Amino acid sequence: MSQEKKAVTESDILITMAATRNVMRAVRVFEFGGPEVLKFQSDVLIPDPKENQVLIKVRACGVNPVETYIRSGSYARKPALPYTPGSDVAGVIESVGEHVTAFKKGDRVFTISTVSGGYADYAVAAANRIFPLSDKLDFKQGAAIGIPYFTAYRALFQKGRAKAGESVLVHGASGGVGIATCQIARACGLKVLGTAGTEEGMNMVLRNGAHQAFNHREANYTDKIKEYTGMKGVDIIIEMLSNINLATDLQLLSYAGRVMVVGCRGPIEINPRDTMSKESSIIGVSLFLATEEEMHECATAVLKGIEAGWLQPIVGSEYPLAEVAKAHEDIIHNSGARGKMVLLP
After folding, report:
1. What CA–CA distance (Å, rounded) separates 60 from 120?
2. Could you give the 3-state DSSP secondary structure of residue 221?
3. How many degrees, rounded to 5, is the angle at CA 80 between CA 61 and CA 146?
4. For residue 290, which of 22, 120, 199, 220 sits 20 to 30 Å off, Cα-Cα?
């Protein structure tokens, strides 16, 4: 037996033994703070699904930058302590609560949010926040769909009003949301430009829908973007790090262009006159504020993309559940994102 198979078998045995005692492994946060407040525990009670909920055996869970902001206590939404982080789960339904008819035990699913938290062996989710996971994708890819692809669709179309034929610059295109944006934008007929911080990242961006890639670590990369667009500018910028790039973004826009603020890690000074000269817009994007109708629209687009085959999540770094603190450290401080980071229980 190979070491890998042996490790998997031992892990499965431990999970099964824990389940017979009605407890599981999960990450718990008892106070807001740095990555060190993420406590890995092996005696957390397995939650029960209530009405219109399901219990999922987690096979993979995505890690999103927003989860580090929530954990630190700096985010607008603060969960009640203690809590288990994690929204983007992929796994198999273990049991269903009352009135759940669309899903059954054994179904492969992915989620856009959870009730009990996804950094765990099992997670409860509302039935209207889970979706069937196609056999075309594995569980790690399933854990890379939720927040990245729904956010990308919302930024492009629900808030950015993108139209086929327009140009979009994805600023930070090699991460989870960035790759999702490139794939969706390309499939919907936009001219896609992307930036990344490494050669590997740039190649990944080009393989996933971008017509052209730029290295945002180069001193003159914005000049290259202006040259590429023929000084016309880009219609839409999807911005992952607005505290660094927003002032520059305003210089790159076309007339009536819009910057979609998807990510930010602090304040920045801009000159509002730059918005006046082109009648451009700065628009914040928050998936948490989407209405039921908007979430349904996102889900419809994402499921169609999976079926059509152009929606192909790229999985980046993988971490065992016990190394969650390192994952939170790396997602903020690593140089150059490469796909979606996932935890593997």
Report:
1. 9
2. helix
3. 25
4. 120
- The helix or strand, by DSSP H or E, that contains position 167, with its residue range, turns out to be strand 167-171
Q: In the 8-state DSSP scheme, what is residue 175? A: B
Name the helix (H) or strand (E) containing 225: helix 221-228
pLDDT in tens, 1-51: 555 555 566 667 666 665 567 999 999 999 999 999 999 999 999 999 999
Distance from chain centroid for Cα 192? 19
Place of tokens 């996102």: 298
* 290 three-class SS: coil
The answer to whether the beta carbons of residues 153 and 302 sit under 8 Å apart is: yes
- Range of weakest confidence among 230-234, 248-252, 267-271, 284-288: 230-234
Look at residues 213, 137, 121 and name the one whose alpha carbon lies nearest to residue 169.
213
Q: Residues 109-130: what's their mean pLDDT?
A: 98
Bond from prior residue into 82 cis (ω within 30 degrees of 0) = yes
Burial 176-195 (b: 16+ CB within 10 A, else e): bbbbbbbbbbbbbebbbbbb
Report the DSSP beta bridge partners of residue 54.
96, 125
- Residues in contact with 227: Cβ distance below 8 Å, sequence separation at least 6, in sequence order: none
